[in-house]
């Protein structure tokens, strides 16, 4: 006779395949190349909480341990399985913003404002080197202006005093 497995989270006897707990939403991922599974999972940054065969669609933002499953801010501390399931169903209408595209557009606009956009035919490395040189020149100019201002203030103080 096979020994019954219990849920490591709520200690209820697991039914069926024993890969998930209907009581608290805990799920056990099947073995394999875990890193590849995470990389191939389009929902890898979503909350890992599952209920009623659905996965929470809210963005995950906390892991119980490094590399552990991500949970949204609500499921990270959820202990009530009924509330957890309600949140999973509520999350199904959540639409992720494409933050990377918005961020890249903002960066491109800022670079263009300073004349630092990537030139046609310019390699990524050459573009980075040009931006670093631009920043170094700006820092040197700022330091020079600050030193000159401090020297002028010292002279003005000596003349007045």
Describe this structure in words.
- The chain is mainly α.
- It has two domains: 1-96, no CATH class; 99-160.
- It is 43% helix and 5% strand.
- It has a two-stranded antiparallel sheet with strand order 1-2. Strands 3-4 form a two-stranded antiparallel sheet.
- A hairpin with a 2-residue loop joins strand 1 (50-51) and strand 2.
- The protein starts with 33 loop residues before the first helix and ends with a helix.
Summarize the structure.
With 161 residues, the protein is mainly α. Helices cover 43% and strands 5% of the residues.
Helix-strand layout with pairing:
Blueprint: H1 34-40, E1 50-51, E2 54-55, E3 62-63, E4 70-71, H2 81-91, H3 99-113, H4 124-160
Antiparallel strand pairs: 1-2, 3-4
Highlighted features:
single chain, 161 residues, mainly alpha, 2 domains, two-stranded antiparallel sheet, 4 helices, 4 strands
Low-confidence stretches: none
Number of helices: 4
How much of the sequence is in beta strands? under 5%
Helix content: 40-55%
Report the biggest beta sheet as strand number plus sense, adding barrel if it closes. Answer: 2 strands, antiparallel
Order of helices and strands: HEEEEHHH
Strand line-up of the largest beta sheet: 1-2
Whole-number mean pLDDT: 78
Which class do the helix and strand fractions yield?
mainly alpha
Choose one word for the global shape: elongated
**Distance linking N and C termini:** 98 Å
* Count of individual domains: 2
Number of strands: 4
* Rg on CA atoms, Å: 28 Å
């Amino acid at each position: 006779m096979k020994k019954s497995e219990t849920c490591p989270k709520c200690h209820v006897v697991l039914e069926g395949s024993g890969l998930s707990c209907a009581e608290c939403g805990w799920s056990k991922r099947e073995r394999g190349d875990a890193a590849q599974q995470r990389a191939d999972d389009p929902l890898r940054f979503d909350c890992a909480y599952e209920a009623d065969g659905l996965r929470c669609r809210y963005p995950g933002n906390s892991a119980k341990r490094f590399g552990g499953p991500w949970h949204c801010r609500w499921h990270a501390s959820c202990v009530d399985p009924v509330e957890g399931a309600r949140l999973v169903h509520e999350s199904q209408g959540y639409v992720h913003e494409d933050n990377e595209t918005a961020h890249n557009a903002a960066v491109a606009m800022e670079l263009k404002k300073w004349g630092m956009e990537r030139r046609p035919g310019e390699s990524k490395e050459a573009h980075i080197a040009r931006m670093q040189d631009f920043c170094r020149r700006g820092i040197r100019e700022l330091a020079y202006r600050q030193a000159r201002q401090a020297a002028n203030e010292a002279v003005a103080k000596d003349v007045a005093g």
